[in-house]
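Complex 365.
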Amino acid sequence: MRRKPKHEILFLNGKRNGDESVAVTLIPGDGVGPEVIGAAVKVIEASGVRIEWDRQEAGAAALKRYGTPVPDALISSLRRTRIALKGPLETRVGEGYRSINVYLRKTFDLFANLRPTRSFPGVSTRFANVDLIVVRENTEDLYAGIEHQVTPGVVESVKIITARASTRIARFAFEFARRNDRKSVTAIHKANIMKLSDGLFLKCARRVAADYKDIKYSEQIVDAACMRLVIDPSSFDVLLLENLYGDIVSDLCAGLVGGLGMVPGANYGDRGAIFEAVHGTAPDIAGKGVANPVAAILSGAMLVEYLGHQEAALRIRAAVATVLRGRRVRTPDLGGKSSTDEVAAAIVRAMKHAASSSAHLAKPE
Ligand code: ATP
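Predicted structure with adenosine-5'-triphosphate bound:
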């Protein structure tokens, strides 16, 4: 059995003492964003970590209010804090402005997207004990957004893969694996078809793998990997992927642990990070107060950990696990009837209850 990692971050922003308040940009986002981010903020505040939130609008909400999806105030806030907790932002399909999510990741060079995907006792799924780490390259591939019409009826979309970005993300994956006591890294690709681009990605991954002899390295073609993931997810550990495969495989992995409401995420750069759940704006349930806040709350735990508060992050995760294990308070996507706010309140209660029990236990006889 795998030893439990003590914590799960790569780039700590420096240890802080408990009383020091830190500025973090808060982007509630579109759709269910304000609901789940509101829940995450309540839980983070109840954990005792002091954060000075700088609330900023982006996406459709900002477009409506300021005439631009990326207001200057947002960019200067991010330049100042270099850390954000962010809700999903609307990106229209096949039209409209470019994805703001992609814009922010590229502008702040947040090259590594980390998505820990774990099952929780109490959430019924096909497999128990799923424990996968998706590491997705965040800055290039088809997400470079270089598209043009060659002639009417013919369009071209350019896939950019560089040795620099491929090496950097591979090193991130292996370094993460080593620091968190993970056993293997699997590079997922389609180099049988895209021999140059995916071939280069693999070449870089192999070169980095040679520096990490303690971690098993393997490769898998993306279609076969998808099949293997849904048959035997335990045969994977850390998954290393380019941008597009990473996006698609992340949602597949989310399906293994109860859906998009369950999986947190972080976008790390060398000098900052944006924390956001894997899910999008969920327009079908937005405004109804029933979105699952667990993914946003767990993204909040990753943020808290990044700020150097490992204990608080562990308390948040333990409280989420307690509430899910209890099966009583849960949102409709998990088969329950509770609202977003009820789930957040139950997690806050579980955290307080755990704190008072341990204080009680710690009392001298
Ligand atoms: P976007 O274009 O912003 O990515 P989308 O609709 O394509 O939005 P998601 O928003 O991720 O993709 O939603 C996909 C499905 O998952 C929807 O049915 C949605 O209701 C569900 N879903 C996503 N997030 C949550 C959540 N936090 N709680 C419950 N259901 C969710």
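The pocket of adenosine-5'-triphosphate is lined by residues 32, 36, 88, 90-91, 260-261, 279-285, 291-292, 295, 333 (CB under 6 Å).
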